[in-house]
Amino acid sequence: MPVMDDLKILVNCHVVDVRGAGVRRDQYVLVRGGAIAGMGPRGAAAPGDAAVVDLQGSFLMAGLFNMHTHFSLALPGPLGDSVRAMSPHELMLYVADGARRTLRCGVTSVRCVGESDHAEFALRAAINAGRAEGPRIFSAGRALMCTGGHGHEAPSALECDGPVGFARGARAQIKAGADLIKVMISGGIAGANETIETMPLTPGELEAVIATAHAWGRKVTAHAGPARVIGQALDQGLDCVEHGYQLTAAVARQMRDRGAALVPTLSVTRCGEFFDSLGVPAWMQERSLSAAPVHEESYRLALQAGVEVMLGSDLPPFAPAEGTSATVRELEHMEAFGLPPRDALHAATLGPAAWLGVDGDVGSVDVGKRADLIAMKQDPTASVSALRTLHWVMKDGDIYRDDTWVR
Predict the structure, then answer these.
(1) DSSP single-letter state for residue 378
(2) pTM higher than 0.70
C-alpha cells in the first residue's frame, strides 16, 4: 500500500533539473495535497505537522514517461496466445498487475498505443478513483489498421477500410475516451504475412484518420517503418512516428521541419532474452533482431537532423531487461546511440509531458506541479544508467516504493 500523508517534506536530496540546468544539491521539497508546494536549499524549517522523508543523499527527479506501452501485449507465441484467450475479468486483473508493476519501476505516466477491448479506460478510471495502483494513463484506445493490417490478430486493433471507415474508427476511439489516435501505416516485425516495407493504407484512408483526429483536438501517431510512407504521412499532418525503422536523412529533416516526434523503441530489435521468455517464434525473432543495425542508423539520422525523440519501450515498462527494467534499458540504448544524458532525461520526462499537453502539471520538479517523483542513488545527468539505482517512487504525493523499508 502507498504511504499517504497530506503533508510531507523530502529532505537530504539533490534535485535534477530535466531542462538541462543540472543538479541543485542539498535541497528540500515540500509536498502538500499531492503537489509540490515549495522547495529550496537544505535547512529550511519544516511545518510542524509535516512527515519528514529522508532521502539520504539521493538524486530526485520527475517520474518517467513511457510513451509506447501495451499492458495487454500479445505477441506471437504461447504467452501471447494465453493473453488473447483471457476472459474480460482475467484481462482486467492482468493489466492492473502490469500497471502496478509499471508504477513501482518509476514510470509515473504512460501512453498506451493499442490495448485490448479498451481495458485501459476502465483501469484508468480505477486508478484515478484510488481503487487500483498505476501510472497516469494517456491512451489511443485501439489502434486503427486496414483489414489484415499490422496487428489485426489482436483485440487491441480495429480493422477499418476506406476513408469513411477510418474516420469512423477514429471517432469510436475518441468516444471511448482516447487522448490521441494511433494508426498502422506500414507492416511490422510481428506480422507473419507482411514485411516492414508493406504500405497497406491508401492516401485517402490516412488523410481521413489525421483530419478526423485533428478536428477533435487529438494528435495522431503512426506505427511506421519505411521512410516513403512516413514522408507521405508527414505531408498530411502526422504528429509522431513509432519505431521509424528505416528513416532517411531527408525524411528525418522533414520530421524536424514538421515538428513531428519519434518514439524509436530501440529495444524491440535487441531483446532476444525477452522474446525467449515469451516463446516468440524463430521467424519473428530473426526479423526483429536482424533489423537492429538499420534501426540504430535510422535513430542516429533522426538525432543528427534535430528530431525530438521520446522514451517508449514497446516492451512492458517493467519487464526485466539485462539487469534493469525495459524502460531504463530503452533509455540506455537512446543514450548509447547518441543522445546526451541530459537530453535523454528530457526525452523521458518533460518532452513527453509537453507532447501530451500536460507539462503544466507534470514532467519536472517545479512548485505547483503534481508530486510525481523518483529517487535514485546515483546522478542520472552523468549517465542514465544511474536509473538502475532507483529505489523510491512517489505519485500524486503518495509513496508507492521505498526500498529503505526492505529488510
Answers:
(1) S
(2) yes
